[in-house]
Design the sequence.
């Protein structure tokens, strides 16, 4: 059975997009080469510290990577529930399949950097024993990080039924987005410190004393003890690592079984939207109320909102680290920037629930559905964006930039909600139906649609962005009326983008509603 599951996973991987395989292979080989290079480029005194930090980065990558991609959920346990298979055997097979592929291969290559480390560290006649310890430690380390990754991924899937779990996943997504957009603010200081770290290691910082007792530090400790001629402490370190690997392996096997309980935890508070009594008693008001409730109740929709907020928060943090308060002032605009990205697959996120609109199909209901979704996503993302912008301006004191920041925020919200519904209709991507979702990446993958929505939102808001840039960088040269003109252009830009996007989506959905529903049924 294990061999069948591995072959099944490899067959699925062969049918994924080629650029994803190439990118993953390139990044993995580059990281493995950097691990080996660290052994030879570091000074002898700092070599343990450097390799310790590199192995810590590999462990962190295995913890975060599967959460941010959909690869870990390629073989879902519930796919095999009707087969006459032992639950523990199924879990062991699914865990074994996690080692197959590019990730497991490059991680093994990186872990084998312990062998040259053992060679250059060994003294006297301990070289052979040190290499043997390094080889065993590398194997145990690979088992540990892969099993830990699957355990954390499964626990996060279970935690997605709670507010805390959604928040933890949102922090990771927000950190990833902010690092991709504003990571340059801290990359340069880190790059400048690499030569110093290769020479001095942690120095007087007591990080090594704590990290060397972690599972990714134990193989280094074992090799060092064996190289120094102390076999008993070396074997003890390997035994601790083996115990840690066995513990996370047992946990992963236990968690890789279908979840049969309730999808979400019972909520003890009334969600946002349930108090919206001021909404009109018509189809548009019904859709807006439904959207507010859905975005707040559904963990996977709530994850999008919370990720956007953390995206803005981390943008502000990067600005503070880099000493650029103007970057922190764009925290609210960063939240608004995610409107088109988060809403690029609204109908795909709802899954087969679109049948309700098919049954009640009419021009008025389709129009109300599209416009209601636009209003809902604008309110849910717009309010945090405005609050975060005001808070960051109050903290940093950059009130002179209030007009351009507000103008960009308004334009992004309007154009974003229009772009979101257009991409949701044109590029509806089926995913796991809402009632069957388990993991953080189950809401469907729409990479092409997200990228297209991002580009459309940037280019469509160019008139406002251009005027805001002139207002920001031109100093005292713009006339007094230029600020009001910038806000007026932003408002027109937002209204035009929202109206045009909604009109295109309404027309397309009205003529292709059955086809869209049929596409979403293929889950």
Sequence:
């Amino acid at each position: 059975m294990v061999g069948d599951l591995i072959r099944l996973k490899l067959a699925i991987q062969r049918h994924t997009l080629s650029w994803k395989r190439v990118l993953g292979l390139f990044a993995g080989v580059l990281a493995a080469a950097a691990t080996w290079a660290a052994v030879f480029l570091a000074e002898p005194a700092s070599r343990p510290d450097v390799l310790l930090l590199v192995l810590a980065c590999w462990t962190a990558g295995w913890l975060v990577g599967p959460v941010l991609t959909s690869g870990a959920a390629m073989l879902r346990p519930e796919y095999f529930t009707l087969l006459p298979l032992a639950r523990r055997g199924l879990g062991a097979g699914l865990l074994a399949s996690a080692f197959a592929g590019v990730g497991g291969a490059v991680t093994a290559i990186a872990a084998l950097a312990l062998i040259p480390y053992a060679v250059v560290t060994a003294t006297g006649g301990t070289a052979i024993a040190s290499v043997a310890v390094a080889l065993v430690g590398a194997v145990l380390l690979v088992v540990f990080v892969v099993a830990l990754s699957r355990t954390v991924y499964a626990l996060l899937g279970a935690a997605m039924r709670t507010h805390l779990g959604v928040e933890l996943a949102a922090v990771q997504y927000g950190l990833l987005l902010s690092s991709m957009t504003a990571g340059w603010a801290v990359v340069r200081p880190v790059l400048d410190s690499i030569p110093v770290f290769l020479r001095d290691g942690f120095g007087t910082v007591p990080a090594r004393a704590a990290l060397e007792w972690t599972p990714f530090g134990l193989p280094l400790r074992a090799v060092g003890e064996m190289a120094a001629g102390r076999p008993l402490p070396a074997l003890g370190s390997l035994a601790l690592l083996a115990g840690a690997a066995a513990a996370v392996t047992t946990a992963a096997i236990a968690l890789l079984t279908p979840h049969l309980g309730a999808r979400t935890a019972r909520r003890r508070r009334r969600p946002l939207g349930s108090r919206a009594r001021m909404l009109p008693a018509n189809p548009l008001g019904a859709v807006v109320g439904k959207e507010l409730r859905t975005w707040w109740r559904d963990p996977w929709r709530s994850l999008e909102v919370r990720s956007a907020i953390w995206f803005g928060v981390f943008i502000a943090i990067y600005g503070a680290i880099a000493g650029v308060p103007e970057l922190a002032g764009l925290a609210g605009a960063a939240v608004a920037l995610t409107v088109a990205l988060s809403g690029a697959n609204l109908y795909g996120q709802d899954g087969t629930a679109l049948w309700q609109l098919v049954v009640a199909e009419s021009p008025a209901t389709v129009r109300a559905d599209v416009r209601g979704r636009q209003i809902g996503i604008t309110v849910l993302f717009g309010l945090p964006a405005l609050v975060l912008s005001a808070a960051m301006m109050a903290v940093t004191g950059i009130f002179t930039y209030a007009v351009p920041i507000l103008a960009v925020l308004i334009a992004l919200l309007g154009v974003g909600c229009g772009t979101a519904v257009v991409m949701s209709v044109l590029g509806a991507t089926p995913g796991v139906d809402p009632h069957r979702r388990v993991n953080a990446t189950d809401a469907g993958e729409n990479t092409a649609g997200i990228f297209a929505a991002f580009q459309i939102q940037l280019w469509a808001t160019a008139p406002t962005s251009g005027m805001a840039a002139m207002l920001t960088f031109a100093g005292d040269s713009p006339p007094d009326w230029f600020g009001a003109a910038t806000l007026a252009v932003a408002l027109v830009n937002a209204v035009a983008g929202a109206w045009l996007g909604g009109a295109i989506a309404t027309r397309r959905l009205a003529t292709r509603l059955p086809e869209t529903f049929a596409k979403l049924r293929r889950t």
The CA atoms of residues 283 and 368 lie 6 Å apart. The two ends are 25 Å apart (CA to CA). Residues 482-520 form the longest helix (39 residues). The chain has a mean pLDDT of 80.
